[in-house]
Description:
Elements: H1 2-6, E1 14-15, E2 18-19, H2 32-46, H3 51-66, H4 72-82, H5 84-98, H6 102-111, H7 128-142, H8 145-163, H9 173-180, H10 192-201, H11 223-236, H12 264-277, H13 282-294, H14 298-315, H15 317-322, H16 325-344, H17 348-365, H18 368-385, H19 390-402, H20 406-422, H21 427-444, H22 447-463, H23 467-479, H24 496-511, H25 515-528, H26 536-553, H27 557-570, H28 572-585, H29 589-606, H30 609-625, H31 629-645, H32 649-665, H33 669-686, H34 689-707, H35 714-733, H36 737-753, H37 757-774
Antiparallel strand pairs: 1-2
Helix pairs in contact: 2-3, 2-5, 3-4, 4-5, 5-8, 8-9, 12-13, 13-14, 14-16, 16-17, 16-18, 17-18, 18-19, 19-20, 20-21, 20-22, 21-22, 22-23, 22-24, 23-24, 24-25, 24-26, 26-27, 27-28, 28-29, 28-30, 29-30, 30-31, 30-32, 31-32, 32-33, 32-34, 33-34, 34-35, 35-36, 36-37
Amino acid sequence: MASVHESLYFNPMMTNGVVHANVFGIKDWVTPYKISVLALLYEMTASKITLPERRRLNKLILPLQQGPDLTLGQFLQTVEECCSQTAYAVKLRLHEMADGELKDMEYFFSTLPTPFTAFDSEAYKTSVVGLFMRHMLLAYNKLSFSQVYKLYRSLQHYYHSHYAKPTDGQVGLPALAADDSDMDLTSTEDTVGDRVDKEEMDTPLHESELRSENTPSRGPLSQKQAEYFLARQVTIYFLALTVFENIPLQAYLLKNDENKALKPAALQEELNNMLKFNPDFAEAHYLNYLNSMRVQDIFLSAHSLLHYFDRLILSGNEGKSNGDEGYGRSLRYAALNLASLHCRFGHYRQADLALQEAIRIAQESNDHVCLQHCLSWLYTLEQMKGSDSTVLTEDSVKMAAHFCLPYLASLGIQSLVQQGATQGKTAHKLMDALKDTDILHWKHSLSELIEISLAQTTSIWRMYGKSTMALQQGQLLLNISSLEPVNFGVQQNNTEAFAVALCHLAELHAEQGLYSAVSEIIQHLKEQFPPHTQHAKLWMLCDLKIQFERHMNEGKYHLAEPLVTAISALNKTEGLYRKAQVLKALNRSTEAYRILQQLQVHCEKTKCTEMVIRVMLSTAELHWESSGFSTALPLLLQALALARQHHLQSLASEAILHLAFTQLMLGVPEQALTVLHEAIEPVLAHGAVMDKGRTMLLAARCQMAVAGFRPNRQGQAVLAVDTLNEAAAYFSKLNCKERLRDVHYLQAQLHHALGQTLQRNKSAMLFRLLDQELQSPAPPVSMQL
């Protein structure tokens, strides 16, 4: 381990045998902070420190050299965390120079051991430390006398500002910007006036809600410091709508824990300051674009994206690295990124125009890779519009396989699986397709697609009503070791796939009445995906739906009603459906029926089969309220056929429950009990606690109706006692008092018919207590499922 860290001193920085001598650009400035770093390197070689402390200091060297200038307090605190003895020695060294005379600083540079003046120096001349020391000595020796004097005055100000009273705020580094501005080694003249004029003209490019007006402006950053800052931020977090073909275009990948990155406002402040002094720094514009996407700022994100490609083309970097093709390549991917940006914001017309432009340029250049990315975005755009894109997706998969683009091929197969699930394909066919893609993922180490595949499998099992399988796949995703470990040993766990899996787990726990576990999951989601992040809408909608269902189960309709507006803001379809549920519970049947009819028409157009079935079942319940049981039968049969056609087991079981209840109300309890037996097993195996309770309650009512309190049918009545007890246990777990009141009412009737006086009195007392507590008239037991 020591050899790794000591390579900063001894190992040459070589690639293919070529020494990179330009690690530190000649445009970097000699600053008091850099002198502090030199003092640290001097004390590390002059003093004796333990091996663990030396290792910690070695780890610190590169960030200190390449990072932005720190105040003296920040610098000393950082060093003290590694080695307090060295921090004290550095403080004394700076004190000697700052409180002494100019000759003390001259003496420090003259006695500084270098790879050239000291034969036994620890710093190898081509190592990171050696190059830094060579650069600093070269820069210092090129300074004129007036520049040396200004450097000394800046050092004094840098040192004494640390011990000044904190009444002036941050007066250290910003005040040095003007004094140090003429120390650029590329100029031998005093250019303070020119730089001041330029600073007055170079204002931040954009003003948005991210910009904080009360924050003081920082000093300028060199090109190397700006690149280091960007590398740190991009590594810490971000979705990457990349502009290069070697990284997939459709990857929404949060590389690290975004909480460790700067907040959007703070990052925007740093970017504005960076662009003020480096307006042609293309990568800063791209980071500005990504940061704007975090807060859904469409204007600033589009503006920054266009600036990025303008700077990239004007700088000539693409042309130098790729020949004459570089210019056209940037234009192609600029149009493609613009199309993806408009897709994300739902601007389908603008996205289609940008995509057609990218396709035209790529065809002119015969760029098959770019064309394949365009085809992928084309079928994605068609899906967003609600059109059938199966043919386009199949063509995309074939072409991606032909050009050896496994990422795009796998994305296409996953898209086909998703379309197949909505079109009623059988589960084994979909799982076979996902299994083939998983082999491809592991072969090419596509970790993000492995996570997406597991999340997609979880969603498919959940849609089919197999909650046990969905729970297993969700747990598998959460416990998988990522192939892309991130900084500080934290595994990648804040992608969209993880958010989807956690939301499924939260809903599955809520269905079982485990609300304490749900609270922990939601809290983790809030910490992992803050409200300003792009995937926060997933857990927001999940949390609202869970709260809504809980209030509805507990009969607290006044608390459920305000949640409808919030749900509608995130998902209009879900909001309308839940609004109809609340209206139905409040006995406003006419309004509920009108909303359900509008929702059914909309869902049939968008081919949302699950919602269509739910709407049909809710409409049938409205028919029950007007005693239209025979009218509800065609709707229920249609819903059952649709659910079985699409292999939706949970909805099929729900439709069977409704059919059995309708048959019970039509006076055929034997047939209702026979039909109900088809749904009992899947409901008990995979259903929610509420569904289990409703199933048991309906089974007990059918058994009581079959028995008819006749001597030869007493067995059914006795069986109904156990069934009602089981239903009461399920409803108690959810604190569903209205349902419990119904159960106790039926128990009292049943015990009275069986001549069980004590049990009858107990059930009657429980019914009376609940009825007094609820203080609301109970709906007829015969009119609700």
